[in-house]
Write a structure and sequence with these properties.
Order of helices and strands: HHHEEHHHHHHHHHHHHH
Largest sheet: 2 strands, antiparallel
Strand content: under 5%
Amino acid sequence: MLKPNFIYEWKLLIRSKWLQLLTILLVLLFGFATNNGLQRVEKRNSVIAFAQDEVAEADAVMFSLLDSLEKGLPVSLRSSQLPTNPMVVGNSYPRLAAMPPNDFTFVATGQSDMFSHYKTPKVSRGKIIEDFTEMTSPVQLLFGNFDLGFVIVYLLPLLIVAFSYNVLSSEKESGILKLLASQPIGIRNWVLHKLLIRFSLLSVLVLVSLLAVLLLLGASPFSKIGSLFTLFGLILAYMLFWFALAFLVNLWVGSSAKNAVAMLGLWIGFVLLIPSVLNQLGTAIYPMPSRTLMINDLREMQADITKRQDKILDNYLRDHPEYAVNDSSQTRNFWHGYMASQNLLRKEIAPVVNRYNEQLENQQKWINKFKWLSPAVTLQESLNKLSGTASTDYENYRQQVLVFSEQWRAYFMPMLYNNTDFEKESYNELPKFIYKQKQYHYSASFVILMISLMLFGVGFVSSRARSNYTIVK
């Protein structure tokens, strides 16, 4: 029976122009979304490249100045600006801590429109929380980004709804169902056959269209074949979920109009309502501390510590005797007291910053706990992780920058307190930042697949009363 159904569905879809229309629509949607994503990635790369060029130019100037000073040549800089001073190098010639995109960053914007993708840690910077202030446009956040993630999560289900909402009802309303009365097949099996056929056809169209667009626009989809298969697996599992819902609606509801309303209601619930409720509940249960008050507290702490720099320096040298060997009233300068006070400031503001980060982490844990209520949330998170733009990716980047910032500061502290000059040979010893992308184990496609199979099972069990009912009857 499956083969006649396939032939019937194929002829029906070809004559109704559904496949042609879907192919054109998918190519246009995927093409526009992929192009937007690639432009966003190109802009991100250009920004990082520009920052790298600035660092290289500054290094060339520093290297030239050091070379001139070692040769005894005059330079047109004040003594406080000479790169022989380790604090000048640590502040005026920082390293670039960049977060480059991966091969699939074009798929989903995620958090990439909210944060900067490079930092230049300096030895004198103590306001850690301000280093990661959100960089975004409220207007852009309001309208969002038209990327592949948006097409897959939001628009693809609507195409499936239009493709499957009236599989059974249209046959009843047109009278064609009576012509099939000679076929001894149950209604649920017949509907399942039709939906699986449509799922197969639409899956081929989606994957082929997407692959063609990626190749045409030069997205290099085969650079990481494992990530490409992960993307395809997520898409197919998500599509199967919506076909499973269509299976239930076709069996339970009735007329085409009611089916359409029911499917659109499910789309609103799973794609819009549940994510919004989860987000609002997370914000209400774990409210974020006021950022303005927190920054004011940090400034007050800094002002108070600045007044006690001399005493703080004495305590700091007492705790670090290796730095006190060459200490005297003649060798002390502004940087000695300032760096000691900043070290104390970082310790005192740690609880304030941690409270802010803990609430943010609690909100994320809340969403992760209940994300399985909506496959749309699960899929979006997986696409963000695949793209390297998830909130966990930016937290991973932030932690790496903080660690590097400490390494950068620790490199210059012995030079400062031992009154050692920075030399040309020291350039190659400067710490370098290497971003390590967070690795994930993707289970979303399997979970969504299990949910879909469960929905199909619910459809069969709920229609048990019809188990002996066939089209013949």
